[in-house]
C-alpha cells in the first residue's frame, strides 16, 4: 500500500480505512496480531485483514460487517489525527486545479499542519514531482514526517522544521507552485518569490479573514505579482429524489361521445412520480479565501528580479 500507488491486498504495515458507514470510518495501522475495536465487535488484523483484498467485507466479532478500503488523500482528510485546522477536499480540489498541479510538478507549501493538503499534492505530483513543506512547530513536523514514511510517500517530500517567514522554503528557483496556509502570509511573499522558477509559477494563499487577504494582496503586488484574484468556494449539494406530484382534476369530460357511453370518472388522487432535486436546507459555510496569482492571465509572466 502507498498513497500514490494502488495495491490489491492488505499487507502488514499498511494504513487501511475501516468503513462502518459514510459518517463513520477510521484509519487503522495493520499489525500482525493487532486488534481494532468497532461497534460491531473486534477486527483481528492477522485473520480478518492481512491478505484480504481491498474493498472486501470483513465480519467483526459481534457479527456485524465493515468494509476495508485502500487509503486515498480524500479518505485521509476525513480520518487523519487533527493537530491543526485542516483543508478539506472542496478547497483542495480548487487549489489543485488553479495551481495546475500535475505529475512532475515541484511545489512549496507552508505550514504543513496536519498534512491534509500535503497528501493530495503528493498524489497529484507523483511519481516524479517533489513537495517542499515547511512547518515551524517541531512536534507537528516530526509527526507528519512519520506519517509520510508510513504512507510510503517520503521519497516525494522534504519536511523542513523552520519559520517560513524568516528562513523561507530552503530552495530557490525550483517551484512550479507555492501554497501558503499561515496566519501572516504577507511575510512569506518574498520567500515564495525566491522559491519559484525564474520564468514564473503559480501561487495560492489561504486565509480565513479578509484583512489577511488585503495585506497579502498588497505584499504580492509590491513584489510584482499581477492579475491577482480571490475566491471563496461554497458547495451546495442538491438532494436527488423521487417525488409524487398530484395531477389536477379538471372535472368530467363533457365532449359528446358518439357511442353515448358515459365518460369514465377521473382516477381518485391521481399523481405523477418524477425525479427532481431539492436544495440543501443548510450547507457548510465559509472556510477561507483563496488568493491566487491568477491562472486566467494568458500572458507568460516574468517575476521581477
Ligand atoms: C492551519 S495549519 C495548516 C493546515 C494544512 N494546510 C492542512 O491541510 O493540514 C497552519 C500551520 O502553519 C504553521 N505555521 C504558522 N506560521 C508558520 C511559519 N511562519 N512558518 C512555518 N509554519 C508556520 C502552524 O504551526 C500550523 O501547523
UniProtKB/TrEMBL annotation:
<dbReference type="InterPro" id="IPR029063">
    <property type="entry name" value="SAM-dependent_MTases_sf"/>
</dbReference>
<feature type="region of interest" description="Disordered">
    <location>
        <begin position="247"/>
        <end position="286"/>
    </location>
</feature>
<dbReference type="GO" id="GO:0031515">
    <property type="term" value="C:tRNA (m1A) methyltransferase complex"/>
</dbReference>
<dbReference type="GO" id="GO:0160107">
    <property type="term" value="F:tRNA (adenine(58)-N1)-methyltransferase activity"/>
</dbReference>
<dbReference type="GO" id="GO:0005634">
    <property type="term" value="C:nucleus"/>
</dbReference>
<feature type="domain" description="tRNA (adenine(58)-N(1))-methyltransferase catalytic subunit TRM61 C-terminal">
    <location>
        <begin position="64"/>
        <end position="292"/>
    </location>
</feature>
<dbReference type="Pfam" id="PF08704">
    <property type="entry name" value="GCD14"/>
</dbReference>
<keyword id="KW-0539">Nucleus</keyword>
<keyword id="KW-0808">Transferase</keyword>
<feature type="compositionally biased region" description="Pro residues">
    <location>
        <begin position="259"/>
        <end position="268"/>
    </location>
</feature>
<protein>
    <recommendedName>
        <fullName>tRNA (adenine(58)-N(1))-methyltransferase catalytic subunit TRMT61A</fullName>
        <ecNumber>2.1.1.220</ecNumber>
    </recommendedName>
</protein>
<dbReference type="GO" id="GO:0030488">
    <property type="term" value="P:tRNA methylation"/>
</dbReference>
<keyword id="KW-0949">S-adenosyl-L-methionine</keyword>
<dbReference type="InterPro" id="IPR049470">
    <property type="entry name" value="TRM61_C"/>
</dbReference>
<comment type="similarity">
    <text>Belongs to the class I-like SAM-binding methyltransferase superfamily. TRM61 family.</text>
</comment>
<keyword id="KW-0489">Methyltransferase</keyword>
<dbReference type="InterPro" id="IPR014816">
    <property type="entry name" value="tRNA_MeTrfase_Gcd14"/>
</dbReference>
<keyword id="KW-0819">tRNA processing</keyword>
<comment type="function">
    <text>Catalytic subunit of tRNA (adenine-N(1)-)-methyltransferase, which catalyzes the formation of N(1)-methyladenine at position 58 (m1A58) in initiator methionyl-tRNA.</text>
</comment>
Amino acid at each position: 500500500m502507498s498513497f500514490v500507488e494502488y495495491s490489491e491486498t492488505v499487507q502488514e504495515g499498511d494504513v487501511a480505512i475501516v468503513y462502518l458507514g459514510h459518517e463513520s470510518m477510521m484509519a487503522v495501522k495493520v499489525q500482525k496480531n493487532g486488534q481494532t475495536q468497532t461497534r460491531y465487535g473486534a477486527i483481528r488484523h492477522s485473520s480478518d485483514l492481512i491478505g484480504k483484498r481491498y474493498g472486501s467485507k470483513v465480519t467483526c466479532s459481534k457479527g456485524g460487517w465493515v468494509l476495508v478500503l485502500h487509503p486515498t488523500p480524500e479518505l485521509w482528510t476525513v480520518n487523519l489525527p487533527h493537530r491543526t485546522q485542516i483543508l478539506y477536499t472542496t478547497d483542495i480540489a480548487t487549489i489543485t486545479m488553479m495551481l495546475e498541479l500535475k505529475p512532475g510538478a515541484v511545489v512549496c507549501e507552508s505550514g504543513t499542519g496536519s498534512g491534509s493538503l500535503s497528501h493530495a499534492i503528493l498524489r497529484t505530483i507523483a511519481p516524479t514531482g517533489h513537495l517542499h513543506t515547511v512547518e515551524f512547530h517541531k512536534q507537528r513536523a516530526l509527526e507528519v514526517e512519520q506519517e509520510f514514511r508510513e504512507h510510503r510517500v517520503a521519497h516525494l517530500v522534504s519536511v523542513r522544521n523552520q519559520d517560513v517567514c524568516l528562513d523561507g522554503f530552503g530552495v530557490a528557483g525550483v517551484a512550479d507552485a507555492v501554497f501558503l496556509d499561515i496566519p501572516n502570509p504577507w511575510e512569506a511573499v518574498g520567500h515564495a518569490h525566491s522559491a519559484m522558477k525564474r520564468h514564473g509559477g503559480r501561487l495560492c494563499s489561504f486565509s480565513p479573514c479578509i484583512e489577511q487577504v488585503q495585506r497579502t494582496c498588497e505584499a504580492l503586488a509590491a513584489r510584482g505579482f499581477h492579475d491577482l484574484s480571490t475566491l471563496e468556494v461554497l458547495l451546495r449539494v442538491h438532494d436527488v429524489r423521487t417525488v409524487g406530484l398530484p395531477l389536477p382534476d379538471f372535472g368530467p369530460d363533457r365532449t359528446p361521445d358518439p357511442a353515448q357511453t358515459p365518460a369514465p370518472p377521473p382516477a381518485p388522487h391521481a399523481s405523477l412520480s418524477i425525479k427532481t432535486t431539492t436544495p440543501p436546507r443548510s450547507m457548510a459555510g465559509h472556510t477561507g479565501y483563496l488568493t491566487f496569482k491568477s491562472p486566467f492571465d494568458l500572458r507568460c509572466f516574468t517575476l521581477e528580479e
